[in-house]
Amino acid sequence: MSNFVIGLMGMVIMILMILIGIPVFVSLAIVSIIGMWLVGGLDFMLIQFTTGPFNISASYQFAVIPLFVLMGMFAGESKIGEWAYEGFKRWIGKKRGGLLIATVAGNAVFGACSGMSTAGTAVFAKIAFPQLKQVGYQESFSLACLVASGSLSSLIPPSMPILLFSILTGVSIGQAFIAGIGPGILMVIIYSILIYAYAIFRPSYFPIVKVKYHVKDKIKGFILMIPILGLFTIVIGGIYAGIFTPTVGGAVGSVTALLFALISGTQFKRIYESLWDSVKAIGRIFPIIMSAIMYSRFIAVTELPQVIGDYILRFEIPKFYIYLLSMGFYLIIGCFMDVPSIIFITSPIVFPLLTQIGYDPLVVVIAYVFMAETGGLTPPFGLGVFFLSSLLNIPSIVIFRNIWIFVGANLLIIILIGLIPEIVTLLPRLLY
């Protein structure tokens, strides 16, 4: 049996194991152990699995993950998300649809410290939704916008999915962070245009807020956004300027977010719970990381990505069609898997494939992270929708009624990224 067949069978068996409910890290580890045994023999497998996990766990670069997780936890407990929303609300909240646009913009800014879409969704479900409901905004559309805009936390740096993808594929973390800014801004613009257009055709969905904000109020609104913008500037600016590495940047960001949490009046009990939640999150992530890297080594030994890439190149299929096909695959699996799991499982195959046919590695990282997030919005297994549904105790069907509007906007962004890669690559090229 050839190495290619072993690699292909391993990938299929691993996916089937996950679908029947076996934990992701167990599925990856079992397939990697058996696969390496079949490819190189017992001695080869034992060498890989005695030195590999130790080298991975002892690697300095992985220290960046718990630090950014901790920063996101502290940021979620502080009031900087609430301050950002209030700041945008004072500037655009009076316009028809303005509260939803403020939600989108606030999510984008909050993404500069949260790193995960679920964090953005949870914070703005607590902050924005009660106000939207009180004013009389249409419930289904508001909920769909809220969960969709939570995806901005996975694009705006520092993003945890981008961080994980970069570590697994060897892409520069700093460049990948910067690469997410362009698509994130594009997403805010398209969502805002969509909300404004909908407000014109469905004015009953978006009542006008009868509150007057004077110039002094708007200036205070801008001041409210300074802490979160300052956190972004300190972390991303420090990494870009070469003042510190991404790992040190995570440490600096964690301390800064902790200070904001203390200043905003967060109780010590909540800070302790954030620390414990971070420990539990890291405990869930690291076994998957170690097994995913061993799985990547197994796939690399079988040369499965190179063989698939060479086979596709023989047919001279336009690379944009291959890009769209892979995006469709991500949309499907994103319906029933969380983003980190998707990254760990698929990156050894899809990343080499698209880079081999000519796509910039940064474009591949951003497009796949964004598409996996979009899959979490679509029925029947939209994990992001179910998360918000359970959070607010609202039937998921209410959110699904209008989620397609934002899924369509996301698909448009994905197509634009494939056609105009400069959306992703321009900023990294200018800054680096």
Automatic annotation (TrEMBL):
One of its GO terms (cellular component) is plasma membrane. Residues 12-423 form the TRAP C4-dicarboxylate transport system permease DctM subunit domain. Coiled coil: none annotated. It is found in: Cell inner membrane. Pfam families: DctM (PF06808). It is a multi-pass membrane protein. One of its GO terms (molecular function) is transmembrane transporter activity. Keywords: Cell inner membrane, Cell membrane, Membrane, Transmembrane, Transmembrane helix. The chain crosses the membrane at residues 12-38, 58-76, 97-125, 184-201, 222-243, 249-269, 281-300, 320-337, 349-371, 383-404, 411-431. This is TRAP transporter large permease subunit. It comes from candidate division WOR-3 bacterium.
